[in-house]
Amino acid sequence: MHKKNIALLTSGGDAPGMNACIRAIVRTAIQNDFQVFGILNGYEGLIDNHFKKLESRSVGNIIHRGGTILKSSRSQRFTTKEGRKQAYQNLKENDIEILIVLGGDGTFKGATAFTTEYHDISIIGIPCTIDNDLFGTDFTIGFNSAVQTAVELIDKIRDTANALGRLFFVEVMGRDVGAIALTAGLAAGAEDILIPEIKTDLNELSQKLKQCKHKESFIVVVAEGDDAGGVLEIAASFKKMHPEYDVKTLVLGHLLRGGNPTATDRILASRLGVASVDAILNGEKNGMIGIKNDKISITALKQCQKHFLTINKEWNHLLKLLSF
Ligand code: F6P
Predict the structure, then answer these.
(1) Domains of the chain: residue spans and CATH
(2) Protein residue with least CA distance to atom 1, ligand 1
(3) Which end of the chain has fewer CB within 10 Å, C or N?
(4) pLDDT 10s digits, 270-299
């Protein structure tokens, strides 16, 4: 019997756990008699026809590795009809009608445009981004690892801040969502946390730090998308208001994308990877696999766009009580 083909790719910002997910997809698909093709460099590789047959052994010894063995890209060409047409032709030439894409909101925007234009190709999305900013899932693959890395780095900053009685403004990634900053800030016992979801008022920050004047050090975690700008602007403004503080700044940046995925992300990645093949076997089309209340879910791809953080009452309570 002719084996059906599945292709998969990783797109956009890499996320720890992508490799664990690739591993789960490849092994589950092969066990269900699919032939599996990896597409290198994300949508760029799809347009350039960089397809590579994958076997079970192709994904050995990668569950623990950050990054993505398939490499990734942010493809401007895939945002054009011509680019997507070339991608479609390559899929057809390789006799592939099912594509699994691992990525974030930009990736699913492109996938939605593609499936609107080409109805004989089904795309199954898997949420892989450290930002945790996607509608359709409680958690994205990579978020837990990025938070853990941020907490470990902020703990290190605390040591030297205590030694010299300093105030550190520490910027974390997350694009325009404050999920990493809020979670890592609370876990690291930051004196304050500045996120795009709550308007930043430096006078309020002053008041909060005044309440902590008995402390040996001060750490303020700032989401890169904060409404008051990045740490350099915020620290400069704060220093003018309070020359009495010894102020330092630090941008954790791409450190949060690296490193081995946590066990939590490896399990999430494995669950969503297996579920993506199960969805294909069940005839699902153009959906994103997610996790909701710890249950596997599938949501129409076109709904899986940017989802902004809602600070629920409990988180607000924690913020007010514990972040100083
Ligand atoms: O979307 C993931 C992310 O790491 C964001 O948090 C960050 O703003 C962006 O990617 C950085 O993009 P790049 O790696 O292309 O600089």
Answers:
(1) 4-142+261-303 (3.40.50.450), 145-257 (3.40.50.460)
(2) 13
(3) N
(4) 999 999 999 999 999 999 999 999 999 999
